[in-house]
Amino acid sequence: MEIQAMLTTEESDFNKRTLQLDEPKADEVLVRIVASGVCHTDATVLDGSLPVPYPAVLGHEGSGIVERVGSNVTTVEPGDHVVLGFSYCGHCDNCLEGNAGGCENMMELNFAGKNKYGVSPIHKEEQEVSQFFGQSSFATYSTVDEKNVVKIDKEADLRLLGPLGCGLMTGSGTVLNSLAPEAGTSFVVFGTGAVGLSGMMAAKIAGCYPIIAVDIHDSRLELAKELGATHTINSKNEDAAEKIKEITGKGAHYSLETTGVPEVTLAAIRCLRVKGECATVAVGKRDLTINVTNEIMTKAVTLKGVVEGDAVPQLIIPKLVKFYQNGQFPFDKLVKFYEMDDIQQAFEDSANGSTIKPILIIDKEYQA
Q1: Peptide bond before 181: cis, by omega within 30 degrees of 0?
Q2: Coiled coil: which residue ranges (predicted)?
């Protein structure tokens, strides 16, 4: 079938093109895309940090409506509202242990441009076009594996929900699944973008106190206060690690680092108390030089990398929708909508910080 999609090539970041999309196989689902979030991971493909074979259709925070299903699909049916998550194999050790975010085949399934069958369902005439994260949601339709699809409440506004499939799941899942703080423990987030703020809101749900937000933009720190931060620190003006120790007394129990800036990662480690834990979810370009003895061993702290919030999309996304509906996870305050043709502006606004979470409206006819 023909679809409209934003094609990414070596010559151009985005060009709207008519492409061909394969019909779903027995274990696949055809989804009409309503909206798609713009995520920093898309931008890291454009700048070469995470290479994907070109030409490609990016986008990995899609939400939409099931159009058709393969003969073996049992979890959704036509008309269901869905959020699209990342691709995972379902049969490696980590997947079988319930940690799809740690899938051993994560990189291949999400960044190599092909699905588990070794092909892409997207084509430009006779040329294969890379599928991204198993979905390529910067398009009017996506053919995806059943494991990519998460059924959600039809009462929820589909235009908002796509970012739950990656950025917001990463932040909240890192807190709720990986760090798993006890109520009353101290929590710090470094970087108050979409991932950081979703992690901070999850820390509030978990009952953390104090909740400290660190950034270099006062406007974002003000939003962090509105969303649950008990303290804020502008790290341009003061030493964040020292201020956190002053606030907490002994240092923080937990920190979440979302920037990928080596100096910030070091501050996220140094702010911890003895036996504290730091989780990092960032994609950075520069190396971090660290004295492991002084910074890690003598304080018995833990530094861990977390992918996709150590989450199973089918489990965490419906929870996040419920949290949102209950007023506990007001991520709509991070969002600004853009038309599909304004995709370049959405990326620019995300990069300069004027929009925390851009969302492209793909289907303008949809009404919540």
Answers
A1: no
A2: none
